[in-house]
TrEMBL record:
InterPro entries: NST/OST, P-loop_NTPase, Sulfotransferase_dom. Gene3D superfamilies: P-loop containing nucleotide triphosphate hydrolases. Residues 91-331 form the Sulfotransferase domain. It is a single-pass type II membrane protein. Its main location: Golgi. Belongs to the sulfotransferase 1 family. The active site is at residue 100. This is Sulfotransferase. Residues 1-21 have a biased composition (Gly residues). 3'-phosphoadenylyl sulfate binds at residues 100-104, 181, 189, 305-309.
Length: 342
């Protein structure tokens, strides 16, 4: 089975020195030097897999006591994008999954909305960095004005046993977005990403089945992530179903405006991001954003998105489809949505 990688989301893992380790960063006076230092730090931490460092910034300007006028919204004339207005808040909404489902694409589409402020990188707070504390987590967030929504996305949260309890502890009102995709296609996309970084990897068949011939190996993360019903069971112990929105990774490709419209409704936002913002890139096999007014070119996701899938024998694909079918049907019942994977 071959084809485009579609909208598989996921940025590189962010890393930083553990508590009490590392050398304090000296903040240079030159703004350009500060930017270079921060970019270099993030690149370094992205390569080693720990928690991201907190950027040291000047004290914020107090937020206005009244709701900002429409002309004062971020990006509007008269207010620079890099303004220090607003304050850092805990996210009111999280994209919690799933890896290679289309989470990066969804986040980039939502960032077009003037009332959405999102952390660009994956903080991995509720799975890897929880011991840093909630104050550390809040300091990672972008500043927002009243009426704006703070968001972040870390797709590994959905499959992390402790994540629902920890997120509930931050706020039981958190809105949770899960981008899901046919688990067989998702597993192959996951394998393709790993293969691109580890060329000597065993074949997909060898990893998907015990000893290459036996039962499906649910210990392999590429297979285990697709057991959506099992993971959702854990989340429903802490959050009601009404706190979730399940986004179709397939429809995010074929009808991005429609799926993003559902997300805007779920977040209580006006439908600002519409079909006029998208065009289909036939080379990559997924939608890209049309160039903004005054911009030189359209915006597509990086080269790692839409990578070709390795060819997987049809018999292997069929075995996995048969394996996932009962789990998919349970997931359809739990969510009240038929995603059409069977």
């Amino acid at each position: 089975m071959a084809g485009s990688g579609g909208l598989g989301g996921g940025a590189g893992d962010l890393q930083g020195a553990g508590p009490g380790q590392g050398t304090a960063l000296r903040v240079p006076r030159s703004p350009l030097a500060l930017v270079a230092l921060l970019l270099g730090a993030y690149c370094l931490f992205a390569l080693t897999g720990r928690c991201p460092p907190v950027a040291r910034t000047p004290a914020p300007v107090p937020a206005p006591t009244e709701p900002p006028h429409a002309s004062h919204r971020l990006g509007a004339p008269g207010l620079p994008v890099a303004s220090d207005l607003g304050r850092r808040r805990f996210p009111q909404a999280l994209i919690v999954g799933v890896k290679k489902g289309g989470t990066r694409a969804l986040l980039e589409f939502l960032r077009l909305h003037p009332d959405v402020r999102a952390l660009g990188s994956e903080p991995h707070f509720f799975d890897r960095c929880y011991d840093r504390g909630l104050a550390w987590y809040r300091d990672l967030m972008p500043r927002t004005l009243d009426g704006q929504i703070t968001m972040e996305k870390t797709p590994s949260y959905f499959v992390t046993q402790e994540a629902p309890r920890r997120i509930h502890g931050m706020s039981p009102d958190t809105k949770l977005i899960v981008v899901v995709r046919n688990p067989v296609t998702r597993a192959i996309s996951d394998y393709a990403q790993t293969l691109s970084k580890t060329p000597g990897l065993p074949s997909f068949r060898a990893l998907a089945f015990r000893h290459g011939l036996g039962p499906v190996d649910t210990a392999w993360s590429a297979v285990r992530i697709g057991l959506y019903a099992q993971h959702l069971d854990n989340w429903l112990r802490y959050f009601p179903l009404s706190h979730f929105l399940f986004v179709s990774g397939e429809r995010l490709v074929t009808d991005p405006a429609g799926e993003v419209g559902r997300v805007q409704d779920f977040l209580g936002l006006k439908r600002v991001v519409t079909d006029k913002h998208f065009y289909f890139n036939a080379t990559k096999g997924f939608p890209c954003l049309k160039k903004a007014q005054g911009s030189g070119r359209p915006r597509c996701l990086g080269k790692s998105k839409g990578r070709p899938h390795p060819r997987v024998p049809e018999a292997v694909v069929q075995r996995l489809q048969d394996f996932y079918r009962p789990f998919n049907r349970k997931f359809y019942q739990m969510t009240g949505q038929d995603f059409g994977w069977d």
